[in-house]
Amino acid sequence: QVQLVESGGGVVQSGGSLRLSCAASGSWFSLVVMGWYRQAPGKQRELVADITDEGTPNYADSVKGRFIISRDKVKHTVSLQMNNLKPEDTGVYYCHTRTTREYWGRGTQVTVSS
């Protein structure tokens, strides 16, 4: 079992920055991928960015050039640095990982005001 705990959400003005962090605890063989999804009101959950165990990042087109994902394999954490935030980035951000199955955090709210 893997538990994921997110931190770092909040309210920010358009153009501002926020940093999200997620810590994994429990037991696992390998956290194949760690990443972030988001869900805006009335919309489906979508991938924001993820990073493999080898450190290869993957970004949604909408955040490329603005967000940076990083991972600490020793501390079992994944972080998302979000820069130049836009109102359309507003949503609940969920930490995600995959081992032999998927795990999700409870989510943290990010609100970007115009």
Summarize, please.
With 114 residues, the protein is mainly beta. 0% of the residues lie in helices and 57% in strands.
Alpha carbon gap, first and last residue = 40 Å
Mean pLDDT: 96
- Count of alpha and pi helical runs: 0
Largest sheet composition: 7 strands, mixed
Strand residue content: over 45%
Low-confidence stretches: none
Structural class: mainly beta
Instruction: Give, in order, the helices and strands.
Output: EEEEEEEEEEE
Structural overview:
The protein is mainly β and 114 residues long. It contains no helices and 11 strands. The chain is globular, with a radius of gyration of 13 Å. The N and C termini lie far apart (40 Å). The mean pLDDT is 96.
Task: Please describe the structure with a list of short key phrases separated by commas or semicolons.
114 residues, mainly beta, 11 strands, seven-stranded mixed beta sheet
Write the layout of secondary structure elements.
Elements: E1 2-7, E2 10-13, E3 18-26, E4 33-39, E5 46-52, E6 57-59, E7 67-72, E8 77-82, E9 91-98, E10 102-104, E11 108-113
